[in-house]
Amino acid sequence: MITALPIRGEPVVSPRVSPSWALDIAARFGMEMPESQRSGNPRGIPLVWLRDNFLNLSSFANEETRKRHLFAYLLWLLGNLFPNSHGDVVVPGLIYIAENMVDEPLPEQPKYSFGSAMLSHTYRGLCDATQKTSFAQKAPLLCVAYEFLQLWSWEYLPVGRPRIVQPIYPYDFGEGASATMATRWTKARKRWSPDIAKNCYPMYHQQFEILDEAEVTWNPWTQDQLKMVFDARHFTPGMLTDSAFWLTRCNLLFLWCVEPYNPERVMRQFGLYQEIPPPFPRRIDEETHK
Question: I need a surface site. Which of 18, 148, 175, 270 has the fewest CB within 10 A?
């Protein structure tokens, strides 16, 4: 509902990364990547390098050049959707996914389940960030799709979110543009608390400590909210077409991440009765999780 990323499709999992992936990338783009400032082999493809070299595309470019730019854009997009602790780089495991999307004919339906991949990546990032040490024995670092996490928080929690002032009704998306429930935040005029930038962390922490369940928006996507955003327009494809899978109990996969999906713990998000305490979550063994 927030991103409209597809749930149906193959998991975003790649085969073993080739040890010569950096040379393969250089051959595909016709230029070498910059040397890493860190010791050892490069950790991934620098996002700034992709942006600086493939941002502009001439309208007279040939098919091969267009294909290189599309490949670079997909790598850049995947790197922003799935950030990592190595810095502003695209992890090599995502090269295979981008190559398949460029080299294969455009399918009628999305090939990959990017929705479940984003959830798996988010769960792993939150898990690592809340531990004293991560699996890699490094200091905790929050690596998630930050825009997605922020928009999810604004939908459900009153802490730290802006107030929508004079919401546009219906929203003006522009010709040919699509929208999701996140659009009501990105398109609307927003007002922030005047003291939100000063000492915000202690303030947020205190507000979370005293947060009452009655203040949580358990089901933010009511008929009134849907009407506010879409009015008489059709929903963006992907928002509701895969709703039959929302309550599936399964393991979510993304590259090396295996995370359990436990919808029975958040039934109120689906407008259903929530057992208190919630059922004991399904778990996977520690080695598989690592």
Answer: 175
